[in-house]
Amino acid sequence: MKSEPAFSHSAGRSPESARTGRTSRKRPLVVLAGQQNGGKSTLFNTLTGASQHIANYPGVTVDKKSGSYRHHQIRIDVVDLPGTYSLTSFSLEERVARDFIFTSHPDVVVNVVDAAGLKRSLLLTLQLLEAGFPMIMALNMIDVAHRRGLSIDVNRLEDRLGIRVIPTIGRKRQGKNALKKAIWQTTTGELEHQQFQMVYEKAEPLLARVEQELSRHPEITTGYPVRWMAVRLMEEDDQIEKRICELSKNGHLLLSELMSAKTAFETDQSLNISDYLASCREKTAARITRECVTKTRADRPTLTEKIDRVVLNRLLAPLFLLATVYLIYDLSIVRGYQLTQYTWPLLATLRNMVAGLLPDAGLLLDPYLRALSLWIIDSTLTLLNYIPIFFILFGLIAILEDSGYMARIAFIMDKLFYNYGLHGQSTLPFILGGVFAGGCAVPGVMAARAIPDERARMATILTVPFMNCMAKIPLYTLIVNIYFANYKSWAMLFISTITIIVALFAAKLLTTTVIRQMTTTPFVMALPAYHLPTVGAVLTRALERVWLYVKKVGTIVVVVAVIIFVLLQWPGINKQQMAGYQQQMQQATDTFCKMIETADPHLGRFTDSQLLDLLNDYDDYKRALFASGGGKGKRDVDRKFQSRNELFFSILKPEKDETARKISRALKKLHSKRKRLRREIKEARIVNSFLGMTGKILEPVSRFAGFDWKINVALLSSFAARESSVATLGVLFREGADANLTLEQRMDNEGRSTGFSSLNALALLLFFALYPPCLATAIMVKVQTQSYKWMLFSIIFPTVLGLIAAGLVYSIGSYLNATGIQMMGIFYGVALTTTILFGFIKTGNKLKKEKIE
Amino acid sequence: MQISFFKQRKPMKNARKQSHMRPSHHRKFCRLNDLKPGCCGRIRHHHSSGAIRRRLLDLGLVPETTVVVVCAAPLNDPLLLKLENDQIALRRREAALIEVETLFDDSVS
């Protein structure tokens, strides 16, 4: 795991400033520290309201949430640290939280504590107190504690810890003002604390000696309390060890001296010092809890336990899980898709508005500005079209997370995923990626960051793109409708389950080979109590994530669209070809002009630019009529175009006059000729483009899987955005397009003549299912893994896997003379058996720093 | 008494041997993953080190604490543990690294 070199910004601060937190910062800084599931984020939202934003901590993919609020006319900054169980440096989150505290020197540390689990929470509190910053405790979710029959003596707790303790209920915004007041009083120095100091009994002589040695080296201890450092060092903290070696000239010597003192102490007392220190804290926490918490009634099963008895029941759990996933699918993908029917017209209007601002279309070739702008807009709109779906999806996920069921899903699924080198928490990324059909790998890969196990996280990131994202579905439907029309439901079942089978297979393959050496961490997690999610929190989270998606993907899509535009346009067709097209167009316009002259000599001859205006007007008029919705809208459109150009309008919408009708008919003919020529040019351009050439170059290889160059081009262009595969095929299979045949019929006709069978179709289907992630996902892989190497790998690995699968199916199928549906069955059987068998193979685990006796 | 649970690796081995050498009718020791659902045990010591040990201690699985095995996941792994007021999920792999004293004689599988 890479992270920023620890403590890099701390040099130069005096130890005093570290302890008192008085720095030259203008605004006071408050950090929220606490364990996971302690309601820290809710309290953060309560404090800061809407003014917050999410960024990454430098160099790592841990979310840094920061915000601010105003108190007594002064703006106070708040940072929500990642949830950690302690202040050691074993996990990335812990390191990040710790580094942030010591580099930013907050004015107040608010320790958010789960009142119902006080003892466990106190372990972190004691470590935070050692760090020596002014501290306040927010005793959160006090209502849950009360419901469980726990009564907490707040005054006594304050007395024992020597800090202010504010009971809060983050979800109900209770205790907010008291907390703000306490923060204010602490920053102004009104509230002086005599904070509790941990005493480590037997280890005190050793700690005193270490402290003494360390304080002789100010270059090491600057910015850190010496005591804190001594304790950490005795707890085998490798970050502190590294710091000593790096910052001090004879650091290695000092370190080995301290370590030998430690060993001597351990042998002398026959105890493990690191365990002893932990147990001292544990005992202190237990003592304080005992003194401050009283049980008002005997233990009885909590509501959470009662729910868990049903939800985690061996037989019912899978049913609940399936029902949940189905509900997510139905509400977000199916219903969300219906919603897009209402939102799409809005986006289409936007597109037409922009199109109106751009330079007009040319006769055969459009100005680059127009073509490129429209291309970018179209690519962006395809993406924005998914927003309703994502909003529902993210909202539902937020409900699952806040309610506490998400942790249970991880618990239920862990065994299955663990067998394939994944993790219980891989479930969420897979759901987002589209388990059945419909999802998106981008939020899927984004969600993988929550997985604490490094190897499982990498395996998840690399396999989520195998899921069926929404953009894969149009091509699936197209192919299934043409080649598997009689077995539609079987083919769809095949598609929606084969991807999971292959993803598990690939995950196992990767964890036993390429990423075998990565560290894994044990699956230990606290299952939070069930909570009713609040509407505000769910909406905020859904909006937050949609915005993140739009921001991250939106910027990438623009860049990618430009690149693909260039690849599809250049080098383009040569001058001779172009001259040919122009001649054809010239002939058509000449015929049209002659016709007008004979029909109505008064009109005179149109100039070229007039003619172009007329044709573009014709396009605009038809489009406007289409969008008007008939009736009054139609009359408005008529009036608009009439006022724009009286003469043109008389041709666009001829009255009963016979001549005008004749002219109008001729215009229609000219218009369709122009449309046909433009399409021919477009196709010739793709053929002669970089992408088209690559498609042809790849043909010898792709032949094994039965793909010709046209399919290659479609597959290549779909790397930019999956949606475009069908569009590209539409352009390439254009024969018969003028006869109003659907793309299905056209591909079918051409397929018959070139021998494209259902077997070819199956190979294409398979390859498309296993096809590398689209560019947006690939970029997200880069963001999440912080490495271009893995991004490249995430592209190459599925391509090879897909080519092998498609190639095998096609070659074996041709050899056996099998049909597509037969081979589909065979492949499914083979894949399923292999994957199940694969699950039984044990993976060697390289647990971090683990030595099992 | 407390301290003996935190002995270094070598002494700990001896401690384990001793516990096996003198079988007791009232005190039975086993690994946490051998406890059946519904059974209860008191943690004696950890056989892990480094990150795992730290994480287990952080979660409150500290020697002398009483743990109840609530149930196993539908696929028999991980285990759901209850200690004090917390529910904790733990894979059998890691549970096997925790030695417990069973609090009821008939609870060992």
Helix content of chain A: 55-70%
How far from one another are the termini of chain B? 28 Å
Note poorly predicted spans of chain B. 1-24, 105-109
Structural class call of chain A reads alpha/beta
Major β-sheet of chain B, in short?
6 strands, antiparallel
Shape of chain A: elongated
| Residue share in β-strands of chain B | 25-35%
Radius of gyration of chain B: 13 Å
SSE blueprint:
The complex is a heterodimer of chains A (853) and B (109).
Chain A: H1 15-20, E1 29-34, H2 40-48, E2 52-56, E3 63-71, E4 74-80, H3 92-104, E5 108-114, H4 118-131, E6 135-140, H5 142-147, E7 150-152, H6 154-161, E8 164-167, H7 176-188, H8 204-215, H9 218-221, H10 226-234, H11 238-247, H12 251-269, H13 273-292, E9 293-295, H14 303-311, H15 316-357, H16 368-384, H17 387-403, H18 405-419, H19 427-434, H20 441-447, H21 454-463, H22 473-483, H23 488-512, E10 524-527, H24 535-569, H25 575-599, H26 608-628, H27 632-644, H28 646-652, H29 658-687, H30 690-697, H31 699-702, H32 709-718, H33 724-732, H34 743-754, H35 758-770, H36 775-785, H37 788-816, H38 820-840
Parallel strand pairs in A: 1-4, 1-5, 5-6, 6-8
Antiparallel strand pairs in A: 2-3, 3-4, 7-9
Helix pairs in contact in A: 4-13, 6-13, 8-10, 11-12, 15-16, 15-17, 16-24, 17-24, 19-20, 20-36, 21-23, 22-34, 23-38, 24-36, 25-29, 26-27, 27-28, 30-32, 32-33, 35-37, 35-38, 36-37
Chain B: H1 9-21, E1 28-31, E2 40-46, H2 50-58, E3 66-72, E4 79-83, E5 86-90, H3 92-95, E6 98-102
Antiparallel strand pairs in B: 1-6, 2-3, 2-6, 3-4, 4-5
